[in-house]
Fold this sequence. Notes:
Blueprint lengths: L1 H7 L9 H9 L5 H12 L14 H7 L8 E7 L5 E6 L5 E8 L4 E4 L3 E2 L17 E2 L2 H15 L3 E6 L9 H15 L6 E5 L5 H7 L5 E5 L5 H7 L8 H15 L3 E7 L7 H11 L4 E7 L13 H13 L4 E3 L16 H8 L2
Parallel strand pairs: 4-7, 7-8, 8-9, 9-10, 10-11, 11-12
Antiparallel strand pairs: 1-2, 2-3, 3-4, 5-6
The protein binds S-adenosyl-L-homocysteine.
The site of S-adenosyl-L-homocysteine (SAH) has 17 residues, from strand 8 and strand 10.
Amino acid sequence: xxxxxxxxxxxxxxxxxxxxxxxxxxxxxxxxxxxxxxxxxxxxxxxxxxxxxxxxxxxxxxxxxxxxxxxxxxxxxxxxxxxxxxxxxxxxxxxxxxxxxxxxxxxxxxxxxxxxxxxxxxxxxxxxxxxxxxxxxxxxxxxxxxxxxxxxxxxxxxxxxxxxxxxxxxxxxxxxxxxxxxxxxxxxxxxxxxxxxxxxxxxxxxxxxxxxxxxxxxxxxxxxxxxxxxxxxxxxxxxxxxxxxxxxxxxxxxxxxxxxxxxxxxxxxxxxxxxxxxxxxxxxxxxxxxxxxxxxxxxxxxxxxxxxxxxxxxxxxxxxxxxxxxxxxxxxxxxxxxxxxxxxxxxxxxx
Length: 351
Ligand code: SAH
């Protein structure tokens, strides 16, 4: 039992940099290049156990065999008709998270979770209807990308932090994962997107790192009143303040911000809303992503028609606001934005 405890408390290696692994190997009186071999086998070859690294000296391999790499198990996999694949991944403590692989003709995008569940409780989002459990550790985020890469047998081109959870409530581990995805797996910073509903002070904190990643902000409304209804946390982070912080982010990083706007028929999709939104964003280095509402069972919002969406888009464009409509992927498998909720799928899987 005591032995087991000590094994469990060894931190997993996934998420460690090349130089950290070199130092780690030297701690075992091994030359630094042994750590670099471990780096290559973990990130490029995707080994799940150090005992698989056959280039290491046998004796040392036996000594380190119990140190966890930090990989999860695929608990359930479901492929939608458009090729999108949703995974339920089982973590070392038995918690289940969701990850989505989204192939396009050009590249493979992975939508990763940053928490188990989500405490933000946005009214239209399935994840927020379940229980929030905990933050993910860096290795649990990086693992999601390796898992999808391995399953698709294709290099991952983009990673979006748009799965379960609120990344800016887990900024330390998310930043560690961003570093690892960028430097260990080799995904360009510009191909990494962190999506947030907005947490006071955290956008400013992120800005200080001056990363080249894309910040996406879930705006969803053109005024404080509607936003506070849809996004409860918005009651404590007024729209004006959120937009002000986004402006500071643009000024500090030189990167435009993406605003996500979930379009709910009859709620926030009227011409007046588009004009109000345009007024807020005039001259703002940003891009608006319109997301048609993906239905979830707990609430009876309506998905807008293509015509309504197009009208809203044209209103924004007439006001010289850069905007586009995001195509929903994986809808038939509840893998689209806002439809992630591990529990229901587990229930379905076991029936
Ligand atoms: N907590 C972060 C990351 C989750 S991202 C955030 O809120 O940004 C999830 C994205 O999907 C967000 O833009 C979210 O608002 C959107 N979304 C949530 N529920 C949705 C639904 N039912 N239909 C369409 N988009 C939804």
